Amino acid sequence: MASHSDSEYSGIVHGRGGLFFDTLRDEIGKEAFDAFTKDYTTSLTWDISTPEKLEDTAEKHCNCNLPMLLDEWIY
Question: pTM for this structure?
């Protein structure tokens, strides 16, 4: 965060985050995305998420590999 102003950080977290999930839905399809979001929110209720947990859960529902997408959007 130290390298970004408050407004830049907010744009990254809130704007780019939403765009990532739109892109993920387009990549894996609406049905897999809906199953992923239900599983992801249910299994991580009262837990801390990580990029790895997000990737593992999404890949479980799409039966695909998403490292390139996550490299572009998250890492």
Answer: 0.79
